[in-house]
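Posting for a labmate who doesn't have an account.
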Amino acid sequence: MSTQFRLPLTAAPRYGREDFAVSGCNADAVARLDAWPNWPEGRLALVGPVGVGKTHLARTWARAADAVVVDAPRGGGVDLPALRGRAILVEDADQRSAGAALSDEDLFHILNMAGVDGGSVLLTARVAPIAWSSSVPDLRSRLNALTVAEIDEPDDVVLRAVLERAFRAEHLKPDPRPLSLSDRPPAPLGRRGPGRRQAAGRGGLAAAPRGQQGAGARGAGRSGGRGGLTPFPHRGGRVQGRCRHPVTPFLHHWAFTLRKTLR
């Protein structure tokens, strides 16, 4: 009996603006980002939970602005003189720690470059800058003064776009009948944590790359399991575990269909 092996093929995440779903949960952040290069003092912090599309939106801006990308948790030893007058994207700025991370002093100098010789700085983080730790008093004042663009938890518009994109990437055509949203009560599906990220095919809310079933893009965060989708057990019409928010029925149907197909 022959055995068929699944090759672990992956593709790079797609960060095109056309692939980013804009809705009420992120429209304000998109508008603030689109105001570049007229940000206050040339600085902006893009803030939101894991998996809401911060990386996608920030990388879209970085490509348009020809920005230098600095990975804050591993971005120690940056060439500061080379960054003068450039657009700079500092990713995961609140996840810095000792070792190879971007130091407080370097982050302070990067923020000071904003607004000088055409320089701009965009930072992404999970929490607002006022909550970031800092051992440099001058950096503390800069962080407290940052303009913040916040992305909220995804709504049905974003969740639908994510699942549709995931199916297109896998060349799948689900039964269209559950797409009707009328005359049906809402069915529950997690919007945050492992539930939402797995419902997006572990590809994040912003990008659903072809074949992305395991490692996931940055926007997907980290959670247990093999990747793909995880169904949520029901009991008495309520979802068990960490799933707390209702969404439309077709999302639940598609989540089960996608997981069954990809595993």
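Reply:
Got it, the structure tokens are right above this. The chain has two domains: 26-150, 156-262.
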